[in-house]
Amino acid sequence: MTTLISATDTVTRDALAVLQPGFTGTTAPDWVLRRVDEGLASVALFGRNIRTPEQVTALTAQLRAEREDLLVAIDEEGGDVTRLEVRTGSSFPGNLALGHVDDLALTRAVAQELGRRLAECGVNLNWAPSADVNSNPGNPIIGVRSFGADTELVARHTAAYIEGLQAAGVAACTKHFPGHGDTAIDSHHAMPRIDVDLETLHARELVPFRAAIAAGSKCVMSAHILLPALDPDRPATVSPRILTGLLRQELGYDGLIVTDAVEMQAIAATYGIEQGSVLAIAAGADALCVGGGLEDDGTVLRLRDALVRAVRSGELPEERLADAAARVRALASWTRGAGSGPGAAAQEGTAPGTGVGSDIGLVAARRAVLTTGSAAPLTGPAYVAAFTSASNIAVGDETPWGVAAELGRLLPGTETDTYSSETEAPAAAVLRAAGERRIVVVVRDVHRHAWMAEALDALVAERPGTVVVEMGVPQAAPRGALHIATHGAARVCGLAAAEIVVRGTEGPAV
Hints:
Structural class: alpha/beta
Radius of gyration: 23 Å
Mean pLDDT: 90
């Protein structure tokens, strides 16, 4: 049951202002427009809201007809995590590919071009980049979303990415504070825990966030993770020690703090989304991400009313809610006058000789490829065996990945099949299906999946000429006559790999 309130009540408008909800549909539902009129200051777009750039532009224009300074947020990391190109795969490689190349001008240029495209569509807040140090190679949720396992490398590329994105007028949201890289659990499903001492946290996890703050990141996203060295009782999203004590006071951050999605199980199953939202704002968060899984007016009203009740009961100081709402509105004001603006194509800082504009993603993907071994050029159709595992929620299962589509365009007649841990004797099944054709096996994070490693070993033993394309973290030893590591599964990474398969290589690449 919702609280009977006035739409003009200041506390109610502030409660709406701190929400960043999603919705269903490719046009704005009436309830969203109504809540914007009542004080909602942000909305979030997901893959379900997107068909074409033109449609997104029309959608954001419809929303801004209700409120000119509306924040329109999106989770557009590029690489494996894309919403703008959710049905085709991204035109930009992700963080691991950029970290592997380690060219700051290239990272800055890629982020700026991605930001330009978002700005053209009317999106002005991007929940990126990930500043997590991927120190645990078995991490099920970060992986290729990180620039790498080296702390200083992650820090410098985080800063470059922020500079590029914000030069296009799109606010960066650096995540997942204070660092999600050393976890073995996905916080979409349960509460991760990082048991390291304060010295390690300051020397590793926090270094990229210090760099992000120095680079002027307009937003920081909290992680739903428990770090006992910082707070033994509360995960970061609802911890005053972490959000206010560490991020605000110790690190001196003065921008917007937004939570990761409050409906994720690490929060929802522990506190419930209403209480979790109240605790997050009280702890120092300024905005609440919600809508990846819950996208209805009822959820917005539940959270709005929970915040209003908490203020009226004294659980949440009215000044804290007002301060949070003011920070949201201040960010919205920045986006209206920032950067080059929609439609502009500023390319300052583009890496010399890399190309600009729409080609920069493919240029970066090509530079990120690492090959081991050799193979003759492929002149006839190949057989592509895709070894797949369940996608994590951040990536989703709607976005295509692999090399089959790109290889099929280069070599018509190429066929593909998908194999999983449920496939009986996958190596034998691949051999039967391939016949005499060259086999190309595509994997992602083979080091995390024993069945993939076993199937690859059996397959390569029978067919030594097999080409292996690793599109995840290349942690396992290379297999196959030619091993291609793309450092991500974006569409352009698949194209870069397919080009190498077709032309072959005469020896180990540098």
